[in-house]
């Protein structure tokens, strides 16, 4: 599976059972990470499967 990090898609999707998000805990942890980044006004790096037209998120990282 190929992961990319870029700004080309306008929308990303986060769903249990898609692209390595194995359960509700993983889903909740990713949502919490995104909310913390947003509240701190920090950029995030989004890793997604470029082979999917839905761009399901497989991982995220908060940048400095």
Q: What is the element string, with H for helices and E for strands? A: EHEE
The main sheet comes to: 3 strands, antiparallel
The number of distinct helices, counting runs of at least 4 residues, comes to 1
Share in helix: 25-40%
**Category from helices, strands and their pairing:** alpha+beta
- The percentage of residues in β strands lies in 15-25%
The coarse overall form would be: globular
First and last CA, distance: 27 Å
The overall pLDDT average reads 79
Q: What is the count of β-strands? A: 3
- Estimate nothing, just give the exact number of structural domains: 1
Low-pLDDT segments: none
Q: C-alpha Rg, in Å? A: 11 Å
Biggest sheet strand order reads 1-2-3
Comma- or semicolon-separated keywords:
3 strands; 22% strand; 3-stranded antiparallel beta sheet; alpha+beta; globular
Task: Describe it.
There is one protein chain. With 64 residues, the protein is α+β, with helices and mostly antiparallel strands. It has one domain. The protein is built from one helix and three strands. The protein has one helix at residues 24-39; strands at residues 3-4, 44-49, 57-62. Strands 1-2-3 form a three-stranded antiparallel beta sheet. A hairpin with a 7-residue loop joins strand 2 (44-49) and strand 3 (57-62). The longest helix has 16 residues, at 24-39. It is globular. The termini are far apart. The mean pLDDT is 79.
């Amino acid at each position: 599976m190929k992961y990319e990090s870029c700004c080309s898609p306008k929308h990303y999707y986060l769903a249990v059972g898609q692209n390595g998000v194995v359960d509700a805990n993983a889903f909740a942890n990713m949502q919490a990470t995104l909310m913390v980044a947003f509240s701190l006004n920090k950029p995030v790096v989004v890793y997604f499967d470029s082979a999917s037209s839905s761009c399901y998120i497989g991982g995220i990282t908060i940048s400095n």
